[in-house]
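Hi Y.,

Following your request, here is the sequence exactly as I used it, all 97 residues.
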Amino acid sequence: MKHITELDFALGDLQLNNKTLSGLLNVLTDTFDNICSPIDHDGQITDGQRSLTIYELLRDKNSIDALLDSLKHFTSEQDKKLADTYNQFIINSERAE
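Below is the corresponding structure, written out as tokens. Let me know if you'd prefer a different format.
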């Protein structure tokens, strides 16, 4: 029973990290949608729309960089936790048999 509880906790932790990654991706998507909104239509792009898009991109560059760094960090953490959980519950249980 102890192993089931530990596994449940480990899987819950992985699920929480998945929600964090999903949230970061949603924020990144929203940021790009805001940047691209001036040119998000059919037809010619005016100089004003082009300038506004470049301004938005430059303004949000630090946010985008921070989001990408966070995604990289959480993806790396998720990979490590998944490998640790696999080793703890699969590899170790095979050795115990």
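The two ends are 17 Å apart (CA to CA).

Thanks again,
Q.
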